[in-house]
Amino acid sequence: MPPEPGPTRSTMTEDYLKVIWKAEEWAEEGSPGITTNEIAATLGVGASTVSGNLRKLERDGYLDYTPYRSIALSERGRRVAVGMVRRHRLIETYLVERLGYAWDEVHDEAEVLEHAVSDRLLEAFDVELGRPAADPHGDPIPRADGTVVRPVAHTLQEFVEGECGHVVRVSDDEPELLRYLGSLQLRVGAHVRVAERRDYAGSLRVELDDGTVDLAGPAAVAVWATRDEHGHAAAATA
Predict the structure, then answer these.
(1) Residue 72 CA from chain centroid, whole number
(2) Distance CA 103, CA 32 (A)
(3) How far apart are CA 199 and CA 186, in angstroms?
(4) Can you list the positions of beta strands (E) in 41-190?
(5) Distance between CA 151 and CA 145 in Å, rounded?
(6) pLDDT tens string for the chain (238 positions)?
């Protein structure tokens, strides 16, 4: 079902619902949901402001909210959130593919444009781009009907020594980290092998097709890859 039209929705509503949905997107099943303080940190507002807005969103039917306990999207809230994520990621993809932006430059631009672009223009972007399945960071672009197809992937921090895979997603939370990973050629599509785990230091040595790089914990957690079956088998029997 396509997201509901949004001329009367506030930017606050759209931003909050998107933040809540994105916090759940790559989380492990059974993980606790996003907290009020985490929403406040992401949006740059006070926790008391967040609490008041969450209560308003619950009254409007977008959330199931119990103060100090749980924050969950209603079906209505999920439709809006997925629609906003689709807008954001299509805009990011258009900026990179057609306007020459770097992958670390598009987030803030898309944050502004996602509230203003019409459905007609968004559809034109989608058609022009060939209906891409993922954005420049590998995050899946929801389809117009709200369907989201996420690859089975794990952070490099979860790989054991000897495991191989292909990078399918890089977290876009920190532009500086994106620039760093880009300089190492750790981009979507890169083939990787975890050559050494240094758990005492919280770092990994990772082999790429054209060299070896060392990754500290935050960088290893930001890179998601699918596991090669042969690489997994080799690691398991080593």
Answers:
(1) 18
(2) 30
(3) 21
(4) 63-66, 70-73, 154-155, 164-170
(5) 18
(6) 444 544 468 999 999 999 999 999 998 777 778 999 999 999 999 999 999 999 999 999 999 998 888 899 999 999 999 999 999 999 999 999 999 999 999 999 999 999 999 999 999 999 999 999 999 999 999 999 999 999 999 999 999 999 999 999 999 989 999 999 999 999 999 999 999 999 988 899 999 998 999 999 999 999 999 999 865 544 433 3
The phi and psi torsions of 112 (rounded to 5 degrees) equal: -80, -50
Helices 11-25/75-99 angle, 10° precision = 90
102: left (phi over 0), alpha (psi -120 to 50) or beta: beta
pTM tops 0.70, yes or no:
yes
Contacting residues for 140 by C-beta, under 8 A, at least 6 apart? 89, 133, 134, 148, 149, 150, 151
Q: Which two tokens stand for residue 179?
A: 């620039």
The CA distance from 166 to 187, in Å, is: 10
Cα 57-62-63 angle, rounded to 5 deg: 80
Full set of structural domains in the chain with CATH:
11-77 (1.10.10.10), 154-237 (2.30.30.90)
Q: Which residues contact 123 (CB under 8 A, 6 or more apart)?
A: 144
For residue 125, give every residue at least 6 positions away whose Cβ sits within 8 Å of its Cβ, in sequence order, or none.
90, 91, 93, 94, 117
Cα separation of the two ends of the chain: 48
Say whether 18 sits in a helix, a strand or coil: helix
